[in-house]
Amino acid sequence: MNDLELKRRILERVEDDLQEIEQALKQNLKPHFDLVSKIAGHILFSGGKRLRPLLVVLGARLCGYQGDYVKTFSVIFEYLHAATLVHDDIIDGAGLRRGKPVAHTIWGNPAAVLVGDFLLARSIALAARTRNPKIIAVVADITENMSQGEIQQLLKKGDLELTEAEYFDVIQRKTAILFQGACHVSALLADASAAQEKALVDYGYHMGMAFQMIDDVLDYTLDSRATGKTAGTDIREGKLTLPVIRILQTADEADRSVMKEMIRKKDFKTDEFRRLVKRMEHCGALEYSRRQAAAHVRQAREAILTFASSETRDTLLDVAQYALVRKA
Amino acid sequence: MNDLELKRRILERVEDDLQEIEQALKQNLKPHFDLVSKIAGHILFSGGKRLRPLLVVLGARLCGYQGDYVKTFSVIFEYLHAATLVHDDIIDGAGLRRGKPVAHTIWGNPAAVLVGDFLLARSIALAARTRNPKIIAVVADITENMSQGEIQQLLKKGDLELTEAEYFDVIQRKTAILFQGACHVSALLADASAAQEKALVDYGYHMGMAFQMIDDVLDYTLDSRATGKTAGTDIREGKLTLPVIRILQTADEADRSVMKEMIRKKDFKTDEFRRLVKRMEHCGALEYSRRQAAAHVRQAREAILTFASSETRDTLLDVAQYALVRKA
Questions:
Q1: Of A316, A308, A323, nearest to A54 (Cα)?
Q2: Residue B32 confidence (pLDDT) above 60
Q3: How far lies B7's CA from each of B22, B49, B81, B209, B211, in Å?
Q4: Distance CA A218, CA A92 (A)
Q5: Is residue B323 within 8 Å of B211, Cβ to Cβ?
């Protein structure tokens, strides 16, 4: 089954959930000012996959939860995600996201900083409304780890000595923790057993690690005409990800110095970039990253195979698989 | 008793508390990266008054609390305060704070945005550690209101039609709520009665309103040689505060157009500024603001007069009075 077929199968099963998540995203924004609504809406309603809230809904259902309020709390994780996107775009000096101009280029840095703060505050306030200290602690822990992960990434920009271990630490903090937290909270909302809670935490963690690794591979391989995204963003922003770390480890001296020069000057011609990607394919750096991601997806899937077979379990298995095979 | 004598009397009584708060501020930062420690430290340890954590400590003591962990949680409010200072300085394009260059001019906007996020996250994480849903809800509510207050202020920059009611709404959200929250949490930590809780909430709210109003008056009247602060910052940043709102309401057409021109061009010569301040004194705009602040201080003091007389109550009465008479 190719990526598009898999995507279609998932979407058919979660269509109603996604619609209710969209509703909850709008309802819980309850903006007091038009501009907040506008800016937050610009980032929230511009084609996100809603993967994080979906994991909350599916995870809770997997644990037998049948109520309705899980959807309200699922948006905590989309708000958190959106908050970091707004601030990241400022930090990276990004111009486009999902093919649209980013918030700070339209409304300026001040408004974008504040709307990021507002979204972060909104997600914390929603978590507080659960009045469940465990859930609140998980969300608080996520916000702290994410800011530390981002700072770590900022400090390591352009650092050619970045190790695999440091890269894994950064993506665990800036990405995996949010997926893990969404799955963890799904179990807590459903009042699941300790074993179920652990299984969902493991699923979320491995799924998040794989998701970011594939994101980092796609930054070298995606087809910008099909996706509206631009390849090569990471290297332009000085972000060294696993394919680059790998090529620096394995390439010969000539290739290494070409790489270093591109990273140093943070710019390149299309031809240079294509040659780099070819070199990455040739030395197996992209395949290496994909294989690492595949190992995480395998562990994610194994974690939830501990649950009894159900359509929800199938969907979660598919979602993990899709994180691996997606082309955008 | 003048402002300096009053300050001395307060400081003598809270010397030990302040030392323990300093310790808690350092201990609870537990930075994982040197740069975070450096930037957060730059803003946290540059001469803040520690008023907010002090209110937590004194409020809890007033309610009979004798334990020690209140100091740990008191720093929640200093971290929150520092987080907003870092982001505010970016938003306002400020260059100096307390006579020192601000974080974003030294380390750049990206690092400053992230360290603000980190401090916000740290304060939420500390609140979560109380495992008290009420305390967590108060802190979550503060973060949400503060970001909304800041956004509101940003939207109203340079708006000559700003009303008193809108001004009060902004300062309630961006300042008073933090003082109110600190006092509220002090009562919750001390497991105080509902009446005590309400009294402290009222004290914090009125104290915070007065504190910001006096801050806004001082921006026109302070002696920069004595304080190291620069007068006239608000008008340069397009922030219309109560003295300006009042002068626009009461001045004649000639004065109004001078004012409007200064606000429009966001710049002025020292002479022009002095003339403006003279006009404010002449038409009673500064006195009007001081009187409003005095009314809030009166209400703050009345609120805690419901407690039995004690040294702690005296100190809190002094602190409210100092908010009014301070010259810096």
A1: A316
A2: no
A3: 19, 11, 21, 20, 15
A4: 18
A5: yes
CATH of the domain at B141: 1.10.600.10
What are the pLDDT digits (tens) for A50-61?
999 999 999 999
Measured distance CA(B105)–CA(B139) in Å, rounded = 29
Chain A partners of B109 at a C-beta cutoff of 8 Å?
90-91, 109
Provide the number of structural domains found in chain A: 1
Buried b / exposed e over A257-275, threshold 16 CB at 10 Å, is ebbeebbeeeebeeeebee
Amino acid at site A102: V
Q: What is the per-residue pLDDT for B160?
A: 87
Read off the amino acid at residue B322: Y
Both tokens assigned to A322 = 């899709």
- Residues written for chain B: 328
Round to whole Å and give the CA distance between B172 and B150.
Answer: 11
Q: Whole-number mean pLDDT of chain A?
A: 90
Beta bridge partners of B97: B100
* CA atoms of B96 and B230, how far apart (whole Å): 9
- B112 vs A175, higher pLDDT: A175
The tens digit of pLDDT for each residue in B229-255 reads 678 888 888 899 999 999 988 878 887
- So what's the pLDDT on residue B301? 98
Closest by Cα among B324, B43, B71 to B182: B71
Average of per-residue pLDDT across A262-286: 87
Pull the structure tokens for residue A111.
């408004």
A27 HSE (CA, 13 A, CB side) = 13
- Other CB atoms within a 10 A radius of the CB of residue A324 amount to 21
Q: Which of B118, B132, B144 sits opposite A121 (nearest CB)?
A: B144
| DSSP letters for A48-106 | ---HHHHHHHHHHHHTT---STHHHHHHHHHHHHHHHHHHHHHHHT--EETTEE-HHHH
pLDDT, tens digit, for every residue of B147-204? 888 888 888 888 888 999 999 999 999 999 999 999 999 999 999 999 999 999 999 9
The mean predicted confidence, pLDDT, of chain B is: 90
Q: Decide: helix, strand or coil at residue A327.
A: coil
**A183 in Cβ contact with A59 (< 8 Å):** yes
Q: Is the CB of A36 less than 8 angstroms away from the CB of B148?
A: yes
* CA count, 13 A, side-chain hemisphere, B229: 18
Amino acid at position B305, single letter: L
Residue B27 has pLDDT above 90, yes or no: no
Q: Look at the block and give the residue holding tokens 């290739």.
A: A255
| Cβ–Cβ below 8 Å for B147 and A118 | yes
End-to-end CA distance of chain B: 16
**In terms of CA atoms, which chain B residue is nearest residue A128?**
B137
Q: Which domain range does residue B260 map to?
A: 3-325
The dihedral through the CA atoms of A78, A191, A143, B200 has a sign that is positive
Give residue ranges of B with CB < 8 Å to any A CB: 32-33, 35-36, 87, 90-92, 109-111, 113-118, 120-122, 124-125, 127-129, 131-133, 136-137, 139-141, 143-144, 146-148, 150-152, 154-155
Residues in a beta bridge with B100: B97
| Residues of B with Cβ-Cβ distance to A116 under 8 angstroms | 113, 117
Q: What is the pTM of this model?
A: 0.90
The residue whose two tokens read 């279609």 is: A8
Portion of chain B with pLDDT greater than 90, in percent: 56
Question: Bridge-partner residues for A96, per DSSP?
Answer: A101
